[in-house]
Amino acid sequence: MTAFFATIVILVMVALGTYLVITVAAGSTAGKVAPPDRTPPGVDRAQEELRLRYARGEIGREEYLQRKIDLE
Known about the structure:
Mean pLDDT: 82
Structural class: mainly alpha
Shape: rod-shaped
Strand content: under 5%
Largest sheet: none
Oligomer: single chain
Order of helices and strands: HHH
């Protein structure tokens, strides 16, 4: 009788593991949609991205100014 319960427990664990793997795999790709482009019309996207990187502190003032000149 103990072997029977052990077999049931193992089967339940395998089924649960399979379910979790499938759920995680499906959830990692489901609903992934690119965010909408919120750049106003007439604004250069490269300059906007440069401005945002500077605002987030990802680049310093000198790099920002040099890249801004390069994009103009």
